[in-house]
Each structure stands twice: as C-alpha cells, then as structure tokens.
Structure prediction request, 97 residues.
Amino acid sequence: MKTKPMTMLLAMLAGWMNQQQQQIINYLKEENQILKTELLKATGKKRIILNDSQRRRLAILARKIDRVRMETVKRFDSPNISDYFITKVGTVGSEKV
Prediction:
C-alpha cells in the first residue's frame, strides 16, 4: 500500500502543529502556576474568588470541553463551573438552558 506524498506531508504538518500547541499549553500552565504563587505571596489568600462575569466566561469555554478533559484542567474556583451556571443562573453565555 503506497502512501501519497500529500498525505505524508499533511500528517507531518499536523504532528508539528500538535507539538507547537502542546508547548504553548505547557508554557501557559507554568505561567499560571507562577502567577498563583505570586498572588499568594502578595495577598496571603490561596483561593481566587471569581465574580459572576468571570465564572460565566469560564463556563462558556468549559462547555466546549468534555468532562474527561476538564478533569485534567485545574480550575480556579468551582470543580463544576458550567454546572454552577446551569443550576444557579440558568444561562451560559447568551443561551438559555
């Protein structure tokens, strides 16, 4: 079975893009950890309290990610941030649930 050159090129490009995205994600995770540490030093508070607008912005993004992947993401406030808005507020973004 022969592999077409274009297929091979696309597979290599996809692998390279995945690697680049993973490096960016790792950088952002480390940056968040550093900022959390500096916040703890500055304020003495370990937990970051988000307002409703900030929670809503996170909930909109969280709804696009399945639960398995969300478990790997360390969140600031609530373990089920999108569930919070469904039960308490009743909306996520402009959608009524």
